């Protein structure tokens, strides 16, 4: 059994939709400040695992722990709602399709949750929005609506929105997969910056180069299990398992 | 065509049109209230509420509004509901319109991308906070036009209350036919007034729709 001091722990995560098992007994530990990439073919369960961490897709069985608190503990409905809302405030998530709120400006997107959930005044919230949007290089567009922004800009605002809650952990669910190739880099730069600030991150990605450059550890998942796990230098350059090699080979072919 | 007669009775028709408008406004308000409750029930996490919401919609959309009015106005006293014709008209039509509006409101809400809800919940918003801060403001914009269609139908449906003798536009036309024997002129006059009301409402809805769009 893993010890309780590990920052993020996934213990024996299992998930099934009916008879279809999408996660088969997955365990994972992430230390504070670590960056873990999850790679694998589509349908491997990597997004499901990520979405289980903040209980967007609840596990069938298994435990998720963050900083000594169980995220998915079993409680009566109302208590659980309260508990999970508190936990989710500490877990930022960035989606493939941004999911910015279209009826709010960049400022509104960033300030909404801090004002509503943390009781920030308008002034405090504005300062926070400026700080976070500046960090992602979107300060000049603070009063733009999402429809007036490019994909890369939207994703940067979405990252600022998540950061504004001062999360302990950031989850990235294929954050650059929906972007035009020339817009990928601006989002990657922001993620790199977070890495330099030692934000704890779990990243589901198709971008092997980026994963190799910023991650401490890489998980290769296939058919609901972790096939191989290790530092990027090993998993990418010198994988042990044939399945990993086959995946990387195929990925290289399609990428070139 | 007897245009002199039309001009002579016109003021009385105008007054009746006032009743039709009042009836429409009250019906629309009651309909909106019922529609909101109905949509909330249909989207509830409780199976019983969902069932009741669905039953409400299928009964009121599945039977003629005229029959519903008759049950309420003529059948009501038998089960202890005493309403005058105007009250029965507003309540009957309002509940009926609410069934259609239930589907309009529900449709707008479920058409909002589920990513919006997920993003809101991920930030730590409760179900209710996500609903009123994120989903509803977006859904409300999508509702304006279809609710405008509901309103259009509802205004025309107010003609039905002539059958329970509420003195509105259609009933007034019928009454003047009784004394003048000029059904063409009388119904035409009523029709023109209905058209003006509907046209003005349509413009108002279109204006509101433009007004609420995001950039």
Q: Which stretches of chain B of 5+ consecutive residues score pLDDT under 50? A: none
Oligomer: heterodimer
The outline of chain B comes out as: flat
Share of helix of chain B, binned: over 70%
Average of per-residue pLDDT values of chain B? 93
Largest interface: A-B, 29 and 21 residues
Order of helices and strands of chain B: HHHHHHHH
Distance between the termini of chain A: 42 Å
CATH C-level label of chain B: Mainly Alpha
Task: Spell out the helices and strands of chain A N to C.
Answer: EEEHEEHEHHHEHEHEEHH
Q: How many β strands of chain A by DSSP?
A: 10
Overall number of strands of chain B: 0
Can you walk me through this structure?
Chain A is globular and about 55 Å long. Chain A starts with 7 loop residues before the first strand and ends with a helix. Chain A has helices spanning 46-53, 77-89, 106-118, 122-135, 151-163, 181-196, 208-214, 232-237, 242-255; strands at 8-17, 20-30, 35-39, 61-66, 69-70, 91-94, 169-173, 200-204, 217-222, 225-230. In chain A, α5 (151-163) runs parallel beside α6. Chain A has 256 residues and is an alpha/beta fold. The longest helix of chain A has 16 residues, at 181-196. By secondary structure, chain B is mainly alpha-helical. Chain B has a single domain (3-212), classed as MetI-like fold (Orthogonal Bundle), CATH 1.10.3720.10. In chain B, 82% of the residues lie in helices and 0% in strands. Chain B is built from eight helices and no strands. The mean pLDDT of chain B is 93. The chains are: A alpha/beta (256), B mainly alpha (215). At the A-B interface, α2, β6, α3 and α5 of A face α5 and α6 of B.
């Amino acid at each position: 059994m893993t010890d309780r001091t590990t920052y993020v722990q996934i213990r024996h995560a299992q998930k099934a939709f009916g008879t279809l098992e999408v996660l088969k007994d997955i365990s994972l530990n992430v230390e504070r400040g670590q960056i873990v990439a999850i790679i694998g073919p589509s349908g491997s369960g990597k997004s499901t695992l990520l979405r289980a961490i903040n209980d967007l897709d609840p596990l069938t069985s298994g435990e998720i722990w963050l900083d000594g608190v169980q995220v998915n503990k079993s409680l009566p409905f109302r208590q659980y709602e309260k508990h999970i809302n508190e936990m989710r405030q500490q877990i930022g998530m960035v989606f493939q399709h941004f999911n910015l709120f279209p009826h709010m400006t960049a400022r509104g997107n960033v300030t909404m949750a801090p004002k509503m959930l943390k009781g920030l005044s308008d002034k405090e919230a504005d300062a926070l929005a400026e700080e976070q949007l500046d960090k992602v290089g979107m300060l000049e567009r603070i009063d733009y609506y999402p429809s007036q922004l490019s994909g890369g800009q939207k994703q940067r605002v979405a990252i600022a929105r998540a950061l504004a809650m001062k999360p302990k952990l950031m989850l990235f669910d294929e954050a650059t997969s929906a972007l035009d190739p020339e817009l990928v880099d601006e989002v990657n730069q922001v993620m790199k910056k977070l890495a330099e600030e030692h934000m704890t991150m779990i990243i589901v990605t198709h971008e092997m180069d980026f994963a190799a450059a910023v991650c401490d550890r890489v998980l290769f998942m296939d058919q609901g299990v972790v096939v191989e796990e290790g530092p990027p230098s090993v998993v990418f350059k010198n994988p042990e398992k044939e399945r990993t090699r086959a995946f990387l080979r195929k990925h290289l072919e399609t990428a070139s | 065509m007897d245009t002199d007669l039309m001009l002579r009775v016109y003021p009385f028709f105008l007054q009746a049109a006032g009743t039709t408008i009042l009836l429409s406004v009250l019906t629309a308000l009651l309909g909106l209230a019922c529609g909101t409750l109905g949509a909330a029930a249909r989207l509830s996490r409780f199976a019983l509420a969902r069932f009741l919401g669905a039953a409400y919609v299928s009964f009121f959309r599945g039977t003629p509004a005229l029959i519903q009015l008759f049950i309420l106005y003529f059948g009501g006293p038998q089960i202890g509901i005493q309403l005058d014709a105007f009250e029965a008209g507003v309540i009957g039509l309002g509940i009926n319109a609410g069934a259609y509006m239930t589907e309009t409101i529900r449709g707008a809400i479920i058409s909002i991308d589920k990513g919006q809800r997920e993003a809101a919940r991920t930030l730590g918003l409760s179900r209710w906070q996500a609903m009123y801060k994120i989903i509803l403001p977006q859904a409300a914009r999508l509702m304006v036009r279809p609710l405008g269609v509901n309103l259009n139908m509802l205004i025309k449906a107010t003609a039905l209350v002539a059958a329970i003798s509420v003195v509105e536009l259609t009933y007034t036309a019928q009454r003047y036919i009784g004394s003048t024997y000029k059904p063409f002129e009388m119904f035409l006059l009523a029709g023109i007034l209905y058209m003006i009301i509907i046209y003005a409402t349509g413009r108002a809805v279109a204006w509101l729709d433009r007004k609420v769009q995001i950039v």
